Structure formats: C-alpha cells, structure tokens
Amino acid sequence: YPSEFLMQKITEDNQIPVHLHVSVSLKYVAGLKGRALVEFFHSNIAEVENEELRHLMWSSVLFYKTPNVEVMACVLLSTKAIYFLLDDSFIYADEHQSDFWNKENSDCENSSFHLSCCFVLKLNDLQSVNVGLFDQYFRISGHSADHIVTCLTRDSYNTHTFIQQLMAVLSLLARTPSPEPVDKDFYSEFGSKNTGKMENYELIHSSRVKFIYPNEEEIGDLAFLVAEKMDGLTNLPSLNILLYVLAFQVNHFEGSAQNTSSLQPKTLLLTSSDLFLFDEDYVSYPLPEFAKEPPKRDKYQLADGRRIRDLDRVLMGYQTYPQALTFVFDDVQNQDLMQNLTLDHFGE
Fold first, then answer.
1. pLDDT score for 337
2. Pick from 173, 200, 232: which residue ends a domain?
3. Whose CA is closest to 139, among 41, 22, 86, 60?
4. Containing domain of residue 117, as a range?
5. What's the predicted TM-score (pTM) here?
C-alpha cells in the first residue's frame, strides 16, 4: 500500500470542477499528486495510523442542519471513515453554525496559514445511504442530525463509483451479526404491507448498512406534482418526465467592475410539453427516523416553468463539460395567440 494503480487513480480524480470556486487551502490539496497526496492524507487527515485511503472525489455537499448552504468539498474514503475536507467559506456562510462548527481557529484567516474544516463520518457510525433519482446525488446518514450529509455529484458515474468503493470498504468491517429475525404471525405480516405505499428498494449490506434506491413511484409523484403546477392544463396519463437533471442556473450581475455570474443550484425537469426549474431539498427527504416534524419547506418548489411551444431557440456554448445552454423563449406567456386574434377581430 499504496499500489501504483491506486495512486494513479487518485491523482486522476483529484481535479476540482472548473465551474466551481474554492478556497486557497483546497486548491493546494488539488495540486497534490500521487505519493504526495497519500502522505498529505496520513499526516493531516487520517485519524488512525493503519487506515488506507481508497477513493477521492470532489463534490458539492449539503448538511442536514444547514440545507440551504451548498459547499465544495474534497471527499476522501478510507478503510475507517469518510472525510469531507470543506471550503473555508462554509464556516462563515451561516450565523447559526456556531454550535455546529468550532471557530476557535478563525484568527488564522489573515495569515499565510490556510486552514480547512474537516467533517468526519466514521464507517462504524454509518447507518444508511440513500441514492437520489437517476444517481444525480446520494445522502449518507449516521445516527443523528449532525451525521447526515448529501453529496451532489450531478454525475451518475461519480455516484456509482463512490457507492461501489464504499461497499467494498464496508465489507472489511467486522461487525457483530444481526440477531435472528423473529417469526411474525400472519396478521402482523399482512398489516405491515398494507400501507398503500410501496417502499423504496433496499439493499442491506453485510455490514448492516442500508443502501436505499428510489422506485418508480417517485417519478409518478413528481409527474403528479408537475401536473398540479400546470393548473390541470394537461392530462396526467400523457405527461411523461423525459429528463431529470441537477444543474445550475446562471445569474449574471452586470454593471459591476467585471460582469460576474453566480450559479444557483436547480433541478431541471423536461416533459413532452414543458420545461421546469425546481428548487429541491436534497438532504431532508426521506425523513430520518429521529425527525420529530417535517422540514420547513417542501421537497420540490417550482422556480420557473415554460412551454416548449414558446421556445424560440437554444444557444449552446462551445466549452467542454459542463456545457452551458441558453433557452430563449417568446415574450408571450400562456396565451394561445391565434385564438385571441380570432376573438378580437370576429367576436363581440
């Protein structure tokens, strides 16, 4: 340890997404290669001497206690824990975090010494992993609100790779076997299934960690929600969700010293007749077992919706991934122009 293949793989994965800005300390980490990266892990991050670094991934993350603050992180998976090396800006992004993060080192910010916050989730504390729709994100859950974090990979390949690596590492854990299941009688067995709602697909790993995947009903619920937002303008059976993707909406700020742009996380839905942008809560749903009440906001909140028939043109950027698309719509909104002309000219 480490093998040449592992060092090459970790070096290749150690790249910050070009569209996201990070602090100086994380840029330093992204500049490390091969053996230097492994040595950095052992001397600065690893908590146990004999743990091995198995996987590295850059991803945006959300914490259950701060569902509105998305922050860039370097996610490191070892044989003992998952480490989230966080951007410095996160500590100051929300005034309610003083109890969640220790700020005693804030006096370092003006010096040449750069400090990163590291959130640690030990594999022994891991209880479940919820995979999002179309593998666009996944949520890792421990035993309390402090131990729930969502990785917004926005990439099915990265999600799949991390889940595979996590399963492999969990297989190394020596956990006590589960007690023998108690035989249920007919009525309790029948009653538990007669809830009227299909449970999500669960895979219980040998380490007793649950891997939960969405079922077809989630897409059905989403289609129903979209139809509701369209005020019944379409019939539900013909409404098909063609595309679900986590994206960013670009907001330009003109008039400043240099024209800057901010990226607002959005969920983009494409149906056969409309294009929708939703603000989605990725970290609060499904509700964890300890939750006493539902979150303050719904899972999906409609931010914008346009008819495909009003789409005038689509402009495509020539840069490499991630691709920028500009949708240009006609000014006339929700009006059938021909029908209105007929009424104006020939009707009373």
1. 47
2. 173
3. 60
4. 4-173
5. 0.81
